[in-house]
Amino acid sequence: MAEKKSAKELFSDYVPEIMNYDPEIEKGKLNIAHGKALSEEERHRDDLIRLKAKEQAEKTTEGKNMEVLLNEYVPEIMHYDPKVDGGEEHMIRDELLSEKERLKDVITRLKEKNRGNRKVRR
């Protein structure tokens, strides 16, 4: 059977990813996969991909600033209306469930009071 190693032994050579920071990779001068400088053709291809992505983003926003578009955005959950999204039955069901939980807690407290410190099953 394999001997067990402590966590200290297992992680002795572990270096967090943040410690492997290379400013050349961040600037885009090095190819991350191969660790070598990008060729001129690869750099142009990457620039073309970035430009196409930027143009596509501008088309979807129709030239408007994205921050301005998102400024008026309200998530759908904020428009919740119980009368529209489930009706009054939805509210009644929630009230009944909360009442049921309250009664369970009352019964549990009474059982604990009668039995002392022993564990009580619901």
Structural features, described:
The two termini are 45 Å apart. The longest helix has 29 residues, at 87-115. The protein has helices spanning 7-10, 23-27, 40-61, 66-71, 87-115. The mean pLDDT is 70. It has two domains: 14-65, no CATH class; 77-115. It contains five helices and no strands. The protein is flat, with a radius of gyration of 31 Å. The chain is mainly alpha-helical and 122 residues long.
Quick structural summary:
The chain has helices at residues 7-10, 23-27, 40-61, 66-71, 87-115. It is mainly α. The protein has 2 domains: 14-65, no CATH class; 77-115.
Strand-helix topology:
Blueprint: H1 7-10, H2 23-27, H3 40-61, H4 66-71, H5 87-115
List keywords for this structure.
122 residues, mainly alpha, 2 domains
Strand content: under 5%
Gyration radius, in Å: 31 Å
Largest sheet: none
With helices defined by DSSP (H or I, 4 residues minimum), what is the helix count? Answer: 5
Query: What is the strand tally?
Result: 0
**Broad structural category:** mainly alpha
Helix content: 40-55%
